[in-house]
Design goal:
four-stranded antiparallel sheet; 12 strands; elongated
Length: 262
C-alpha cells in the first residue's frame, strides 16, 4: 500500500545570477532552457569604461614604481653621505620616510589595479555551476546593476532533484518507528508526475525536519531523485508515493470500492 503526499520539485542548486558591475548588456550568450557548464559566459556587460579604468590603474602603478625607484636612490645616497657626516641624521631619516611613503603609494596603486581588473572580469557574467538556464528578463541593451532586485536569470542544477513534501505527525511517527529513526533504512519512494505517470527513478528520503509546525501539525521531508535524462524540472510538482506495510489488513478489489461526498 502506498501513502501519497503532494510535493514540489526543486533543483539541488538554484543559483540566482546577478551582476557585480553596472552597465548595458551588449551580448546574450545563452537562451532560456539552455544547458550550461560551470564557467560558461552567460552575459556580456559593456566593458569599455572598465577597460579604461584598468589602463589608468596600470599607469598609476608605473608612476608609483618610478617614485619608489627614485626615493630608493635618494635614500641610498643620503645614507652614504650620513656615514661620512656630510649630512645630518634628520636628512637621512627624511629620505627613508619618503621611500616608505612611495612604497605605500605603490601598494595602494597595485590594489587599485587588482580591483579594476576584477571589475573588468565581472563584465563577463559566467555560470557558477552546471545547470539549466531559467527565465531571462533582461536582454541586449538593458541597463543592469548590482542593486537590481530581479536576477539576470537562474541556473538550476538538475543533475539530481530535491522533492519536498509534508507528513503529518502520525505518519511521521510511524515512518520513524519502522526505520528505527535511521534515514538509510527508510523505504525508497516513488514520484507520480502531473500526467499521472510514475517517474522511472526511485527516490531516497534524505532529510526530516526536526520541528513539527504547530500551525499545520506536519513536518517537512526531502527526498532526492536522480535526473539523468532531465525529465524533472525545478519548480514542478508531483505526488510522493511512500510504501507502507501493514500486517493486519483486509484486502478487497479496488473496483469493488467507490467514493462519494460525505
Amino acid at each position: 500500500m502506498n501513502n501519497s503526499y503532494p510535493a514540489t520539485i526543486k533543483g539541488c542548486q538554484d543559483v540566482e545570477i546577478r551582476p557585480n558591475v553596472s552597465g548595458f548588456i551588449t551580448k546574450l550568450c545563452v537562451d532560456e532552457g539552455s544547458v550550461v557548464k560551470k564557467g560558461q559566459t552567460l552575459f556580456v556587460i559593456d566593458p569599455v569604461q572598465y577597460e579604461e579604468a584598468v589602463n589608468v590603474a596600470r599607469a598609476a602603478v608605473k608612476v608609483a614604481e618610478a617614485g619608489v625607484a627614485t626615493a630608493a636612490l635618494t635614500a641610498e645616497n643620503k645614507k652614504m653621505l650620513a656615514q661620512k657626516n656630510i649630512i645630518s641624521q634628520y636628512e637621512l631619516q627624511t629620505a627613508e620616510n619618503t621611500l616608505a611613503q612611495q612604497k605605500a603609494n605603490l601598494a595602494q596603486a597595485e590594489a587599485q589595479l587588482i580591483n579594476a581588473e576584477k571589475n573588468l572580469s565581472y563584465t563577463q557574467v559566467s555560470s557558477p555551476a552546471d545547470g539549466v538556464i531559467g527565465k531571462i528578463p533582461y536582454r541586449v541593451g538593458s541597463l543592469v546593476s548590482p542593486s537590481m532586485t530581479t536576477p539576470l536569470t537562474t541556473v538550476s542544477d538538475n543533475s539530481k532533484m530535491f522533492v519536498y513534501f509534508s507528513m503529518n505527525e502520525k505518519d511521521l511517527l510511524k515512518l520513524t518507528r519502522q526505520s528505527n529513526g535511521v534515514l538509510n533504512q527508510m523505504p525508497a519512494v516513488e514520484l507520480q508526475l502531473v500526467d499521472g505517470s510514475i517517474y522511472s527513478e526511485k527516490g531516497k528520503i534524505e532529510t526530516l525536519s526536526g520541528v513539527i509546525d504547530q500551525t499545520t501539525g506536519s513536518a517537512s521531508v526531502r527526498a532526492t531523485f536522480p535526473n539523468p535524462n532531465g525529465i524533472l524540472r525545478s519548480g514542478g510538482s508531483g505526488v510522493i508515493l511512500l510504501p507502507e506495510e501493514s500486517d493486519n489488513a483486509i484486502i478487497i478489489p479496488q473496483k469493488a470500492t467507490s467514493e462519494i461526498q460525505d
